[in-house]
Amino acid sequence: QEQDTGSKVIHIGKNTKSFIKSKSVTEGSGKNVYRGYVEVASVACGSTSYTACDSILIGDNAKSDTYPMNRIMNGESSISHEASVSRISDVDTEYLKLYGFDTNLTYRLIVGGFVNDLVGELPLEYAVEFNRLLDIEIESYPNTLKSFY
């Protein structure tokens, strides 16, 4: 599966602020792409924008790319973009297994912790459904990650 996501923010007022947070979990041979566009107009002096793109990869073939496009049209504003990519390693999973966690629970803890801050912002009904979906997806991980062990 390839997922292509993004966001677009245009600041047209003075002292405006934006915060974009993108998180992705990519597994197997999947690929995630984030494309972001932030523009600060010449009249939007004193504006700030921060974008954070965090990805976690499961498996040797999973990929994640980030393509930010930022335009500042005045000298009194700032834009920042941060991207991080982490791969769940054998060391991570083996450490948790030492404490008695099985493979599914190991991945559930790592991925659940990674997305926890976003899930906490969802309305309760969506958070419950998201966690159910995550549990269903985690059940398939050992079948697709046999090369990890």
Jot down its keywords.
149 residues, alpha/beta, three-stranded parallel sheet, 42% strand, elongated, disordered C terminus
Task: Describe what this molecule looks like in 3D.
With 149 residues, the protein is α/β, with parallel strands linked by helices. 32% of the residues lie in helices and 42% in strands. It is built from three helices and six strands, in the order ββββββααα. It has helices spanning 90-98, 103-119, 124-144, and strands spanning 2-11, 17-27, 31-40, 48-58, 63-72, 78-87. It has a three-stranded parallel β-sheet, with no helix packed on it. A three-stranded parallel β-sheet has the order 2-4-6, with helices on one face. α2 (103-119) runs antiparallel to α3 (124-144). The radius of gyration is 18 Å and the shape is elongated. The model is unreliable at 143-149 (pLDDT under 50).
